[in-house]
Amino acid sequence: ITHDSASPLFEGVNKELSVCMGASTAARLPGGFRAAGEGVYENPEKQIYALMFRPESEDTEQGQDVLRNFVTRICGCRCEWTTASYVDTAVRDIREQVKDGRVICGLSGGVDSSVTATLIHKAIGDRLTCIFVDHGLMRLNEPEEVRKTFADKGINVIYIDARKRFLSLLAGVTDPEKKRKIIGAEFIRLFEEQAAKFDDARFLAQGTIYPDIVESGNRHAAVIKSHHNVGGLPERMDLELVEPLKYLFKDEVRNVGRSLGLPETMGDRHPFPGPGLGVRCVGELRVERLDVLRAADAIFIEEIRKAGLYGNIWQAFCMLLPVKSVGVRNESRSYEETIVLRAVKSTDAMTADWYPFPPELLQKISARILKEVPVNRVLFDISAKPPATIEWE
Ligand code: XMP
Fold it and tell me: What is the 3-state secondary structure (H, E, C) of the chain?
């Protein structure tokens, strides 16, 4: 577009912009409005502005400047939000809401639930009880790391070792949706059983973040919620929700985590689905197969971190495929399954594209996995979402 607006909305913004444009235009303008170029309508006297392009889109040049101008120069807001001020406000709000009650919090090891728990602990100390269900579908050393992090902080965590139980329920199941349903239902059952032991608990903490709310009309957000946020529990158990992160974006949650002293490796961790490796181990879930996947995944992540690329990637992980191929190991024939590397760039997981690693790094990762893990093939997934999804199952 080209515009000639002299309004504060466009202060510091170029007259010519490449924008993500809506399909329609205004047929007739109400009194007091003028068109200040294509798709820009304004009533300077009333300070009302209408844009036919999307300033929030990443494809719009200087869209963030337009939004900032609107908030600061037109609405008159001051930019005084900081992570530290947020922590203080959240702590005060939690105390006010919970009073002398007890809060139950499900820990997954992910950023959102970890920051939620730490924040609530800061507010109410021992009246927070965390429940960590180890379904055996976590990444290498993850359960130990979670336990250690929270023990170091003096946060009360009930650890439930349900590894055998989950694997026996999942034995022989290969259908992805069946796997997800079994994992989700059992997770809720175990959580509920533990939570019920605290009959003074009136609150359930959830790591809901702002995008969960914004996207709640979206099919996927619903899926993420139903598992991750222990869906259905608050109503069933008559618990009131405590959601201290619900106005934060992911990067803000990470900053809060840092300022609360959570380890860097926990704060910057890539998202991990509730059903865990259950949806990354294609085919049957057996402990030997999960161990192979865990070992390969740890190598992949270690090499990405060593190369300094971890923070540039939205998500990186391995999958194990039940497809066997022939190899030669220790001078004899071997017949083993296949590892797939998946790494994507994304800003919100709604769309994603594969991450272009330097070939030398792929070479190194593949060589290490083939040497250290009993698989005979390492493949690299170059599928964009859509139509592919990030997770395979
Ligand atoms: P897809 O595979 O649909 O995934 O492209 C989009 C994002 O959602 C994550 N994901 C989940 N997160 N519970 C979660 O908490 C789930 O059941 C679940 N399934 C997918 C996925 O890792 C990606 O970041």
Answer: CEECCCCHHHCCCCCECCCCECCCCCCCCCCCCEECECCEEEECCCCEEEECECCCCCCCCCHHHHHHHHHHHHCCCCCCCCHHHHHHHHHHHHHHHHCCCEEEEEECCCHHHHHHHHHHHHHHHHHEEEEEEECCCCCCCHHHHHHHHHHHCCCCEEEEECHHHHHHHHCCCCCHHHHHHHHHHHHHHHHHHHHCCCCCEEEEECCCCHHHHHCCCCHHHHHHHHHHCCCCHHHHHCCEEECCCCCCCHHHHHHHHHHCCCCHHHHCCCCCCCCHHHHCECCCCCHHHHHHHHHHHHHHHHHHHHCCCHHHCCEEEEEEEEEEEEEEECCEEEEEEEEEEEEEECCCCCCEEECCCCHHHHHHHHHHHHHHCCCCEEEECCCCECCCCCCCC
